[in-house]
Fold these 2 entries.
Entry 1:
Amino acid sequence: MKILVTGSCGFVGTQLIPSLIKSGHDIVGVDIMWFGNHLQEGQNLRIIETDIRDVDSIPMEGIEAVVHLANVANDPCSDLNSKLNWEVNALATKFLVEKAIDHDVKQFIYASSGSVYGVKEEPEVTEDLSLVPISDYNKTKMVSERVLLSYTDEIAIQIIRPATICGYSPRMRLDLSVNILTMLAVTRGEITVFGGDQTRPNIHLKDMIRVYHHFLDNPQLTGVYNAGFENLSIMEIAQKAAAKTGAKIVVTPSNDPRSYRLNSKKLLSTGFEPKYGVETAMDEVIELFEQGTLQNEDIHHNIKTMVNLGLDKAV
Ligand SMILES: NC(=O)c1ccc[n+]([C@@H]2O[C@H](COP(=O)([O-])OP(=O)(O)OC[C@H]3O[C@@H](n4cnc5c(N)ncnc54)[C@H](O)[C@@H]3O)[C@@H](O)[C@H]2O)c1
């Protein structure tokens, strides 16, 4: 299948694309390359450096499915520049799906976020619960979901609400909860936990990639699906990292109320089974730091990189 992947050079895209090529797909990747590019073009891969806000620059000829990952990809980055966030995360999604429909693309897979639920006390956060987004990032994800769902008569819309992802990618992110707590444990021997009671669902990157394969292989699975399997408090994550490294935990007050669990029974009922977990990701991060192949650099933190690029100013 010929697949367009937006955000191809990001944390997820950089691992997803080689895996799709291995399964026999032809890929066109588009990315603005804020975090560089670790992919190499080849027979089955064309990479275009472009801004998805310029929809005319995105080739759609012959594309059968779109995997839409390109976004300002977390809460603090979205708060950095509201205009940029709304244009990239919401407006560009509308123009992208309309162009896909015009070109008779069959499937559109969207990386939303489990954080669209906001703060939820319910023990089982299923897809039918109300969305109470508390940040601009959550709001743009929710708006994009709703815009996409308005096109269900014209294209198969598959919306995934991933948990926080953990694990290794050549385009590494150390600003994700499991990755950062493990990094602190292994590099400082001390994990600073802000609050700690907040619950976060998790998914290993390798399982995230398997989820995208699952939806590409099953275009009949339309609608909205949670994708998160280990609901752990930040303190539980820190304790797991401490147990692996001998690091001590220091607790400081938090002003981050985001806390939610994800129930992914709907996804599991379609035949998907997770194979990896938080502990696998921790082992990967520990090994990379111990080998010295990974360092704590700004490029691995979205907010620091975006500020370094001047993206906090109007663009
Ligand atoms: N990583 C997670 O834990 C997680 C969890 C839930 C949802 N998601 C979603 O999954 C998707 C991928 O996340 P990721 O972790 O790979 O993030 P990432 O920041 O590593 O990748 C996003 C990519 O999009 C690109 N991009 C941003 N704006 C663009 C634009 N205007 N035009 C072209 N390219 C642009 C960036 O250069 C980057 O390479 C995002 O939509 C994110 O919101 C991620």
Entry 2:
Amino acid sequence: MTDSKGPLNVGIDLGTSHCAVSASNGQRQVIESYVGWPVDMVARKVLKKSVLVGTEAVESRTMVDLHRPLERGLLKEGSEKDLEAVKVLLRALLGLAGVKRRGKDKTHVRAVVGVPAEAMRVNKQQLRNALEGEVDALMIVSEPFAVAYGLDALLHSLVVDIGAGTTDFCVMRGRFPTEDDQRTLDNAGDSIDELLLKQLREKHADAQLSIFMARAWKEAHGFVGEAQQRVTVTAPMAGKPTKLDITDELRSACESIVEPITETMRDLLPRVEPEFQEKVRNNVILSGGTSQIAGLRAALQAGLKPVGGGKIKAVKNPVFEGSDGGLALAIDAPDSDWDKLG
Ligand SMILES: Nc1ncnc2c1ncn2[C@@H]1O[C@H](COP(=O)(O)OP(=O)(O)OP(=O)(O)O)[C@@H](O)[C@H]1O
Ligand SMILES: [Mg+2]
């Protein structure tokens, strides 16, 4: 893909919950989008590090000031610490991809970074600043576009990327998508976790529950439609492990995203040229971690019936589809399409 003297091309998927990198040297890595700084000298002594990234940061959450800087898909405005956290994440990803920027054998890096469609408008400049000095050439694209590019689904398709912070939609018309071709909703994995936690707290006032528990239960048992079996989990009540039946709350939390996503698809489709609408309806691509909820693909496909029906297929590898697409784009992009940094 690239010889040892050529630039290293990388595709980065900058997600709310996971960041993935695919590089032209064959490296593919994923980390959780968390950064943590030890809170005091005791924490520093225990952790023996000045900053922690990914799973290590989450697992040490009692000892660190924990940041998830891309919450809701955007770099939270005005927060220096979040901006710093994004830099730490990007540097960690590039490091995992084998990039060396210090010393004399400096890797020449061209990076395509996929971000939620909405973030393209608001925070492009912040992202550019965060990557200053870390890469030589940069291209910022929307996440669903990167997925479409990687799958070569560039014409008459609709990509629906259901992540953690946002669900991003992008209609592909055989060219770079415009703002009109894209939509972003806040209904995604995080909103399911929050709703599940809220409903469980209302039903079991004595149970000690956290957002991390809600997320883990959703990932293990999440479903929409009729339950195949009851879902029972264990949580402490006044310190005592107790069994809870969460079937109904889990179903309604997972189903909360179906209607908004269906409505948005139904809103985007009539904007496609009339003679191509059927093609697009039959070429809907579902990506993102939340697309793995059992029964979701079928429920969304059923939602297309009132507008003539359609076909929705799920991508094979929701973890790396975005970063692989970014890498494919980096390899193909002519010099003129890059934003030069450094
Ligand atoms: N097996 C599973 N079933 C249901 N949900 C899952 C499963 N595995 C992961 N998820 C959820 O998928 C989401 C993460 O997906 P993904 O990595 O695509 O998001 P992201 O790219 O970080 O977020 P965004 O695109 O919104 O910025 C999380 O909400 C996670 O809980
Ligand atoms: Mg994503």
